[in-house]
Amino acid sequence: MPRSPLPFRNAVLTGACGGLGQALARELLATGARVALVGLNRPALDAMAALSPERCAVYTPDVADSAAMQVLAGDWMARQGVPDLVIANAGVAGGFDSAEAADLATMRRMLEINLLGPATTFQPFLQRWRSDGATSSRRGLVGVASIAGWHGMPGNGAYCASKGGLIRYLESLRAECRSAGIGVYTVSPGYLRTGLTAGNRFAMPGLMEPDVAARALLAAVAAGREHIVLPRRIGWLSHALACLPTHWHERILLSQPRKPRPGEPGASDIPGLK
């Protein structure tokens, strides 16, 4: 049975291969939306597109490649029209050690995907929206950041920097877009049960299932909430920890096992890492 209607009928979704991305794709398709599925796992995307082939197209660019993203945008708009929702969900995670020269490449690639990727995703569609001028339909840009972007975490500096930078970028973009009637939404998940968290060896309070998170995210965007935390209680916990004296906060974080670095057991893959 179709889900309750959302105000968005045409969506572009990066990171659609698994976890939150797959859950978002299923929810959008269930409401009747047309969805551009963007990711690197072609079989997973094809399987999702097969659920509604007349309303989907599959794309496999590097989200940090602006030229490739512009080609994607042109093709999708020629096929299915101008989207009213663009979700920059593609992201990677991995442990980081500033004393290791090899980890500098990890940081560079993480910044390319997690921070530059949303900008290259939004740019061609934002350009089209601006050229179209005023419209009566709602339009939204959604950036999936993380509560890890709120505060630094030992052994996770590259990821925290990329997500913290994304939060500030979205804050800036929101101010630029408000007068044009374009909503900019910052999503800060805590821990979701996805491939990015599968190798974590530390405590993950408030662990959330991707399908639950996807429904909450889309409902919040539809309601116009510009700052979305999934689940809300993890945001309260993060703020509470930040109120502790710095050395107490650091001691708590340092007592937890570090996230695996690329190449270590349990580490998640970072596409394009050289």
Describe this entry's structure for a reader:
With 274 residues, the chain is of the alpha/beta class. It has a single domain (10-254), classed as NAD(P)-binding Rossmann-like Domain (Rossmann fold), CATH 3.40.50.720. 43% of the residues lie in helices and 13% in strands. It is built from 8 helices and 7 strands. It is globular, with a radius of gyration of 18 Å.
**For the largest beta sheet, what order do the strands appear in spatially?**
3-2-1-4-5-6-7
SSE run: EHEHEHEHEHEHEHH
CATH H-level superfamily title: NAD(P)-binding Rossmann-like Domain
* Strand percentage: 5-15%
Number of helices: 8
Q: What is the arithmetic mean of pLDDT?
A: 87
Helix vs. strand class: alpha/beta
User: In the CATH scheme, what's the topology name?
Assistant: Rossmann fold
How would you sum up the major sheet?
7 strands, parallel
Stretches where pLDDT is under 50 for at least 5 consecutive residues are none
What portion of residues is helical? 40-55%
Q: Could you name the key traits of this structure?
A:
274 residues, alpha/beta, Rossmann fold, seven-stranded parallel β-sheet, 8 helices, 7 strands, globular
Topology:
Elements (H helix, E strand, L loop, with lengths): L9 E5 L4 H12 L3 E5 L3 H8 L6 E4 L6 H15 L4 E4 L14 H30 L6 E6 L12 H21 L4 E8 L20 H13 L4 E4 L1 H11 L3 H9 L20
Parallel strand pairs: 1-2, 1-4, 2-3, 4-5, 5-6, 6-7
